[in-house]
Amino acid sequence: MIDYTKKITTDREFNPIENLDYSIESDRGRILSSPAFRRLQKRTQVFALELNASIRTRLTHSLEVAQVARFIAKTILSKLKREGLGTYGLEELENAFVSTAEMTSLLHDIGNPPFGHFAEQTINKWMKENAVPILDAFSATTPDAQNIKETVAKDICNYDGNAQAIRVISKLQRLNLSYTQTLSVLKYTRGAYETKPPKEDVLSYLKKKPGFYYSEHAFIEKVQQTLGVASGHRFPLTYIMEAADDISYLTADLEDAVEKGILTLDQVYDLIKKACEAEGEDYLLEIIEDRYNQAKQNDEPYQFNMFFTLIKAKLVTSLVFHVVDIYIENHTAIFQGSFNCALLDYAKESKYYKAVKILEKLSAKHIYQNKEVQTLELQGYTIVNELLNIYKPILQLSADDFSKLIQDEKIDCFIAMRLIRRISPKQIVAYKNDVKSLERDNRESFQILEWYYRVRLVTDYISGMTDDFALNEYQTLMAL
Length: 480
Hints:
Radius of gyration: 24 Å
Strand order of the largest sheet: 1-2
Number of strands: 2
Oligomer: single chain
Structural class: mainly alpha
Helix content: 55-70%
Order of helices and strands: HHHHHHHHEEHHHHHHHHHHHHH
Distance between the termini: 62 Å
Largest sheet: 2 strands, parallel
């Protein structure tokens, strides 16, 4: 039975707000005023360290995703009204339904590191080559300690912006969002310490990437149990955020590439036209030809903006109605969180799916493989990699020495004594709280987990940087 009153609730970690509308508005306020949200304005979408303010950042991208998610959510409700919203427990939840989808979209990139997805790979490579060898030296003579050691080894090599978002919300920013708002951010449902399932697994898509770390696994389990979401399953409104994200990407990167001078309007038109003709795809071809001709009727400075504005107006509207139909047709599975597919990827024979894939391939070939873009990625790699090298001494300390360090006591490692003062007090408090909750009876297990939370501390600090702050920190500490 579909009953959204079981999923959209006022439950939160502490200080619950009994009135649902007030609870929803409180979530909105906490998100919009969060420093982590504001930092998105200085984080890479595609082009790092970009001075041209018209090029998308993570913040402007998230705003666009939120608008599309709002459109999708309102359209779903409009269609469900034909049967009566009371049928689904939505009669008093329209505002909460729309707002949760919208705010989830604003939050979806909040855990992304500086310099985009390339930095995720950089962090994981560094952890495998530098942190795991430190972990290997820890003694683990009991089954419990050995199990924890293996869990930690997997977890620290699977940094992901989605998992980091849960950590930012729950511990680093302490937003105390409602469980409804928090769980809607959980795009992927596998722990970073868990093995990726085979494709034939019924939840393979939902678990294709890490969605949370070992450090937050107890919190996620508690939230899921409270809202009646089974382990490995997804919150229903998360499908809306994902679809909105996918739709927003379609022409955004091509638009920014033209703004950057990587491609011209005529080149974009020719590339899409040729790709459509090669694939025999008439739907997208008809749209771009019609919009191109309309754009060309305008004066030169306005042709570029007119072309993309007209394309987006048509594509977004069509794709929104398309994913809404899929959401409603698969409503039970989506409500249960077992729908093992992105909404936009479901109907692979549809003209919409084919149009999306054409645009995705063009961006991958002509933008992501562009020399300038890849140069920026390499620069980001160097910055993040060297910052991790600089902070490595903190991970090489014993638990006793690090305990003294954060209590402002003197230790032999004079470098670590100076590095620790650069890390945010909020991140250090998160570390202290995590360690405070550990059981100390098993000395081996305690030492492994204390060190694990130290890894999280360093990762929290570096991954929480904006692009320009990371560059400045790199230049400062490398004495450049």
